[in-house]
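Subject: for your reference before the review

Hello V.,

The reviewers asked for a structural picture of the protein, and I figured it would be easier to keep everything in one thread rather than splitting it across files. Below is the amino acid sequence we used in the manuscript, unchanged from the supplementary table.
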Amino acid sequence: MLKISALYIYPIKSLGGIALDTAVLTDRGLQHDRRWMLIDADNRFLSQRENAQMALLKTALSDDGVVVSYTPDSSCVTIPFLPQSEEMLDVTVWDDTCRAQLVSNDMDEWFSEKLGLPSRLVYMPDDSLRQTDPRYTNEGNINSFSDAYPMLIIGQASLDDLNTRLPEALPMNRFRPNIVFTGGEAYSEDTMKHIHVNGIDMHGVKLCARCVMTTIDQDSAKKGREPLKTLAKYRLKNNKIYFGQNLVHANEGILNVGAAIRVLEVHEEERFFIKPVEII
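And here is what came back from the structure prediction:
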């Protein structure tokens, strides 16, 4: 039996994540997941891809908002759930442009100081409706500031298999999933086309192409070559390295650790990896 073993949200895009026992699934993903984002002077999103030190900013939830801690000096700030500013602007996430709300000047100054580069913090209000990638999803599916889809699912067996191939085992936080599950074979998430959890219908729409963020140690912000070097040996397809699958959902509800995952439909084998191909 497949069961949810971990749930994660990442309130501020590209900063540290939070493990939850229970999560509310909203119209655009798990509640608070990537509803905030740091942008540069051109209103474009900031990412660990270019700024690895963002990994040193950790997040937690409190009654008052999102608490962000900077690990090198243990300083922290609390971001209220609702922005203090009324100023709206257009921001860019990859090829998408959507409306966002500035949070406050104080937050901009704090993040700029910690990261050593001009940064502004923005929030996605409820009336900002950013569509998912139309090449793989239907009209009406929306997401927050995540790259292109509301959720990412990875099987624990997939990471376990990868770790047997690596010179040093890596934690799941390198891959930033929202849902982790136990049970099934390694990479069984590849084939999930329609799954059912706690009365919620979810659809696997695209394997997740991985980037250099997976090579950044989330505790030290140091970069390496793994896991991309090893994954390229058996998870390379069309010049992209895949690990995990992106999900969209048809309805809202509650997810919890321990909930059973029912697989109702699978993708055709020729479209997705089923088992890793050994490279001799």
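For the response letter, the relevant points are probably these. The radius of gyration is 18 Å. DSSP finds three helices and 21 strands in the chain.

Happy to draft the paragraph if you're swamped.

O.
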